[in-house]
Amino acid sequence: GRGGFHNVTVMQAASPRVQLTAKVRLADLSDPRAAGGLLLNAHGTEAGILAFPAGNKLTFFIRKYGTGQWQQYRNVPIPSQLLGRAEAYLRLALVDARVAAFYGTGPDSWTQVGEVFTANEMTADVTGGMELYTDSSTRMTTSVTFEAFDQQAITALPGQPTPPPPVAAARTPPVPTVN
Questions:
Q1: Which helix (H) or strand (E) holds 40?
Q2: How many H helices and E strands in the chain?
Q3: Distance (Å, rounded) from C-alpha 79 to C-alpha 106?
Q4: Is the model's pLDDT at 78 over the cut of 70?
Q5: What is the pTM of this model?
Q6: What is the DSSP letter of 171?
Q7: With b meaning 16 or more CB within 10 Å and e meaning fewer, what string describes 32-55?
């Protein structure tokens, strides 16, 4: 861990065009630095969304693996419809190095967290999964349960238009010349 922080992750191979979705339940709501969420990793860069119930925030981030150096992040207050529930639906989507994060009150209701981030390192060799994030200096036990974890291939970020398929260039046949 770095500076007392410990991350426990469970990862698997993923496509650079992927969407992760899970219902995250956090049993210990008393530690403001404890969180659970979804994570993508490629070439030393991580992108994720974490729910910090006691800290009253959702954090969408891009950070360097190992150092924890935050490159981009967006904190938003936990929406009122999630307060006191100890659970949230989270979604993390990646398409062509563009990453977007979402939260929901159920599996069919999604709100985007902040803007879309770009992570140029995430075009190949991507892994995706779940993360428990905790600060060991507090000596508190944190329990996170992930339910209904899903990883699926996508062609566009949710809420974004699907790009049209490439169009083959039309060839105009040569005009015969008359001598």
A1: strand 35-42
A2: 0, 12
A3: 13
A4: yes
A5: 0.80
A6: P
A7: ebbbbbbbbbbeebbbbbbbbbbb
Q: Which residues contact 133 (CB under 8 A, 6 or more apart)?
A: 5, 6, 7, 33, 34, 35, 36, 37, 50
Q: Token pair of 127, please?
A: 């892994």
Label residue 11 exposed, middle or buried (CB < 10 Å: 0-12, 13-18, 19+): middle
Alpha-carbon distance of 179 to 15, in angstroms, equals 58
Judge residue 87's burial from the number of C-beta atoms within 10 Å of its C-beta, 0-12 exposed, 13-18 middle, 19 or more buried: middle
Query: According to the model, what pLDDT value does residue 34 have?
Result: 76
Tokens coding 52: 């910090």
Tell me how far apart the alpha carbons of residues 112 and 60 are, in angstroms, rounded to a whole number: 10
In angstroms, how far is CA 22 from the centroid of its own chain?
Answer: 11
Q: Which residues contact 72 (CB under 8 A, 6 or more apart)?
A: 61, 62, 117
